[in-house]
Amino acid sequence: MSELNHVLEFLVRDYECDMQGVVNNAVYQNYLEHARHEFIKTLGIDFAEMARQKINLVVVRAELDYKQPLVSGDRFRVATRLEKISPVRYGFIQEIQRLADGALVLQGKIIGTALNEKGRPRLPKEIRDAFDR
What we know:
It is built from 3 helices and 5 strands. The chain is α+β, with helices and mostly antiparallel strands.
């Protein structure tokens, strides 16, 4: 992944694995979401404060390509890059990479928007300014 804006490291915990001993596919979305939230914080956007202002940041599409599994005890990183898709949509390009061998585990593109109090897409100025850096 080129031009990474944010990287966060994780450790796979036992309870995140399924009966086959690998991380359950749904758990990867938790990893990606946490990394996006931490990335957004670095841009000066407070997710909770946005919600208090009745601005809800939401996912409208998730594209995930699973390449290799993680298992309990694996250390890995989630890299995140932001791209503008339209005036009201943005994409988080994300990759998960196992640290021990550098293996690519997952590639994803998460598309989101902000909804105003009426449920209509609208990116407030503070979000547009942060995302355009």
